[in-house]
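Below is how a single chain appears once it has passed through the pipeline. First comes the sequence as given, then the structure the pipeline wrote out for it. We keep one example in the README because the format questions we get most often are answered faster by looking than by reading.
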Amino acid sequence: MSANELGRWQIPDVDRVFSAEGAELTPGTPIWLTSDDALPDKVASNAAHVRWLEAQRFKGTVRRQALLPADNGSLAGVVLGTGKAGGKPGEPCGPADLLVGQLAASLPPGDYALAGTGEADELAAIAWGLGAYRYRRYRGGEFDPAPRLQIPVGADAKKVRAIVEAVWLGRDLINTPPSDLGPDELEAAARALATRHKAEISTTVGDDLLSANLPMIHAVGRASTRAPRLIDLRWQPPTAGSDTPLICLVGKGICFDTGGLDLKPAAGMLLMKKDMGGAATALSIGHMIMSAGLNIRLRILIPAAENSVAGNAFRPSDVLTSRSGRTVEIGNTDAEGRLVLADALSLADEESPDLTVSLATLTGAARVALGPDLPAFFCNDDRFAQSVLAQGQALGDPVWRMPFWPGYERNLESEVADMNNVSDGSFAGAITAALFLNRFVSRARRYAHIDLYGWRPSARPLGPKGGEPQSARAVFEALRRETIS
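Resulting structure:
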């Protein structure tokens, strides 16, 4: 891995959207959030501002914003509507402070400060950072000057920056076209993250996967000119001991998915650069965990490959032997993600982790059931599941719990092997895929699987259209709360 390749995947710099902390700063232009029931006191007490808002018919409805002029024609403040007091803010979930994200994409350049958001200052600052993201790698010219937020004094500035950096990293990876992000470049991103946090990292590449007993990762990726690999990152805080909980994140790293010999139609390939969204999300969570110094031992496993078409591609009706020794009949080569994850999950399981989480853009069935905003969330531990659900709701990073329903185990039956990689029917596709993965986890104390879309179909306050490491913030916050409880 060359220094140039490693440098390409440094953690994104968020300084352009946040003012420096600790400096003697001119007070930023105030931002007030207001419901349509009442204006903030400082706005309501200024007769000129009230008349200006009335002239614009500003009512504080959801996402309506207005710029307040000063006597000299400069900008005196910004008012952002949040709708009915206590009502829904118009986002999929979460408090009204998340709407601050839309201001980062719409205000003129300058320094701004939150006015009176109180306990939610930290969440509003994170929303600002998420809303400010732009992917400009392939567009000419420099970034236009961006509005910058002064992170509130009471907020944890380090945490705000780390979370925004992590989400930007995940978005950058997913948005990068497959011509510039294959298994090798995904490894470079993981190595850059390991370097940042002084973590250990190793890889097993190409035919070495066979000698390392990772045969299904090899089978899925062998038809590509870019060698498949297993990326293995380990980190722990200096105070960790043998009794410190081991958390394993396993992220699907299919850098492009043609469907293999069961070739996708053209329309089905258009977004397949995002098929490594699970890996991007795992790295996002990893950056949050390591930045926060959580008291856990962390392992991130990324099976990285391209599912390509060539004379040596694996075929429908092939039988593959997995790392666990179980044999898998291939009912469809386009269900390759669960194959590479199965070998990685078996490897993770050998250490009997306290928690294993698999993250993957795995099934279209999950999108049919829940749409693009809600990842399907499976978990065999009710306490952890409730924590992730609650944090997702509070942070605007929602998931929806679905069952490991044992009645559908029969859908994976094969007449020639221990199991098939797909069902012969069209029902319960997301559950069937989750059950397939669950068969390769037996020693972990807890197991969760997240089937995510990894993409925002249209611009929203928390970010523009494009790649999104869904569930990263919810999972991190659930883990953070465990470590401090």
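The first strand starts at residue 29 and ends at 34.

See the next section for the split statistics.
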